[in-house]
Structures are given as structure tokens and as C-alpha cells.
Amino acid sequence: MNADKIVDRIRTDAVSFNSMEDLDVIMEAIGDAKIVLLGEASHGTSEFYTMRAELSKRLILQKGFDFIAVEGDWPSCNSVNQYIKGASGAAESAELALSDFNRWPTWMWANREVADFVNWLRTANQTFTKEKQIGFYGLDMYSLWESMEHIIAYLEKTGSSQLEHAKKAFECFEPFNRDEQSYGISAGLFGEGCEDEVVQLLFEMNKKRHQHPGSEAALDAEMNTLVALNAEKYYRTMVMGGPESWNVRDQHMVEVLKRTLNFHGQDAKAIVWEHNTHIGDARATDMAGDGMVNVGQLIREDPEYKQVFALGFGTYQGQVLAGRAWGSPVEVMDVPKAINGSWEDCMHQAGQGENQLLLFNKSQLEFQEVIGHRAIGVVYDPNRELGNYVPSRMAQRYDAYIHLDETTALRPLILESVNSELLV
């Protein structure tokens, strides 16, 4: 890898990114794409969220996109969906709707940046007909128990004959007391799981799948059933190690995206908010060698979804919101300067500390070389930076990239009320 050549090529091809108006370049490049994948290099950086929100607003107003799908659980996101559509019984504010994100890491969606965007969506929806209102949906599948509860509530309300199947499936999980690890050990290591019950529930639910076509309540029940099926498989495979649990998760997210697109009709357009590790094509990283797939790869490979645009984000230095370990208290951490020879370091050198925007094309041979590209998770240790870089061929991983040279931490809603000093 010749870093000097990469820096020179960035200087030639990148454009300065100084204001939101500069996003016009991205909008033009997106063209007629029907699926736009918006990444982030961390789950705790304010600017990644605000840039995605601004792009999403433009995609909705200028290109007629139909919904936002995010790396969040379906039930929690449905609370936001109900709020922005003014549904009966919905939360009275964006903050209350986002309070349903009560599973660690809560800050990933319960933050001021998302709340501001959610309020914009609610206002925008008031100008659209009911059929054209923008949706907000969750692609993830950690909400096993919550999704089962939503299924039973829906079946009780509709008086469905599938209610007993749902209760039987839920009863199978009750002894594990909502402990995913305990369930995973029991099912994965000892074969004492609830797979048969959930598969049967999905079969029964699918028999009535078209009973209420076009109904948001029916879509909610369908997706929660899919969550129950795949979350059970995820927790069962997670304890075994290897790539399978990762693949189960990303395959699930693609399936939810496809079904939600189908719900919105043949010409539906979707905006996806997820980490770079999900939206950037896995085949352009070392993930492929480990047998892992991701959303970006699976969508690009599907012949039905050829019009896809993937935008990656990154930063050279700044601050981020994260935890020291899974479930530990959230804190504002310093993001050190990118390591020498990394993609972020090359962007920094080329732009001399300025924000930049870069479109990729097949003629940029320098960007086909493998280079380290930083990825920060919800668990982060700034003192162990080397392990945070994913070997990547950038021009194959994304269609475009935005480099923000110095970034700041998200503003979590829960900390705004109890720990405001962290936001200074």
C-alpha cells in the first residue's frame, strides 16, 4: 500500500465539505437509487447523525423516499413510527417515543440529534397524505421478548386463532427470565431451545399474512414474528462463536428491509442508517475471508435491488460516546488521531485538516488498495486503537465517503436530565 499515492489521489478527487449545501454533490450522485445506505464510523458521533438527517430530509423532499430503516429494534422504532404519524395512543413527544430505547446502548437512538430529526419527520408528515407519510422502522433483532409480547397483544386485539400458538411459543421462553445468554447456552450447547415453537408460530402467522393488507398493525405483527424467529436463532448460534450469529443478524436486517419495501409498494424507496460495518460491502474487507456477509453486500448482490448507493463516514479525531465494556456506564471519550497510514490519516493529510467529500469510481486504482479504515463500536477503548481498523478497499466498499476531520460526541437524552456536565 502506497500511502503517498493515495494522499495524492485524494487531493485530486476530493472536494471540500464546508456546509450542508455541499451535500448537493452526494444528492446528484445518488441519482435514481431506490435504496440509500448511510453509514457511520461509530454509534456515538454527533456529526454522523446530523449529516444523515440532513441527507434524509433532502431524499424525502426532493426524491420521494418513503421511510427510514435503522440499526435499532423493531418495537422501539415502532414507537417512533407511531409518533411521527400521529397515531392514536402514540407518545406525546419525541423524547417519550425515544424512551422506548431502554436497552443498552440507549444513547444510540435516544439522543438529541435523533429527537430533532424525529420532530422534523412528524412535522413533515403533517403535510403528506396518510398514504404518503414517512415511516421509521427498526431492522435489528435483539428484542426477542418484547416482540413476543407485541405479537400476543396484536393477536388478542384482533381475536386471531393464532393466539394460542403465540402463547405456547412465549411460554417456552419464560423459564429463561429474559436472559438472552442463559437461553443461548441452553439452546446452543444443550439443544434445549424454542426453535420449533417459533417456527410453528411463523408458519401460522404467515397463513394469515394478507388478512389485513396495507395495515401498519399487520406489518408490525409480521416483523415482530420475524424478529422472534431470527433472534432465537441468533442467541442460539452466538454462544458457539464464529461468523454465523453475525450473518444471522445481517440477513435478518436485509429481510426486514425487503419486506418493508414490499409493504410500501413496487416503487418504494428506503433510507438505511447503520454502522459502516453493515452498509459498506463486506466483500471489500477482511470480513469476507472470515465468512461474514453484511447488509451492503447482500443488497448489492440481489438482482432485484440494483439501484443501491452506499455512503461511508469517518473522522480523524475528536470525541465519541461509548462504554468501556458491554453494559458499562456511557461516557464521553477522546478519539485519538488516526494511526499513520490509515484511510483517515490519508484523508487528513490530503485535506490538511479540512472536511472532505469523495465520490468513488472504477478508475481510481489507488482506492482499490487495501488500507486500514477505523470502526468504533458501542464498546470502545481509545488505548487499543490498532484493533479498530478494518482492512478495506474503499472504492469497492462504498460509492462515496464523507470525512469529518474533527467530530464531537452525541448528546444522549438520558444524560441531558441527570448528568448535564458531560455535555459541556
Automatic annotation (TrEMBL):
Which CDD domains is this protein grouped with? Ere-like (cd14728)
- By its UniProt entry, which SUPFAM superfamilies does this protein fall under? EreA/ChaN-like
Database matches in InterPro entries:
Emycin_Estase (IPR007815), Hydrolase/PRTase-associated (IPR052036), UCP036794_erythomycin (IPR014622)
Name listed for the protein in its UniProt record: Erythromycin esterase-like protein
- Source organism per UniProt: Paenibacillus eucommiae
* Higher taxonomy: Bacteria, Bacillati, Bacillota, Bacilli, Bacillales
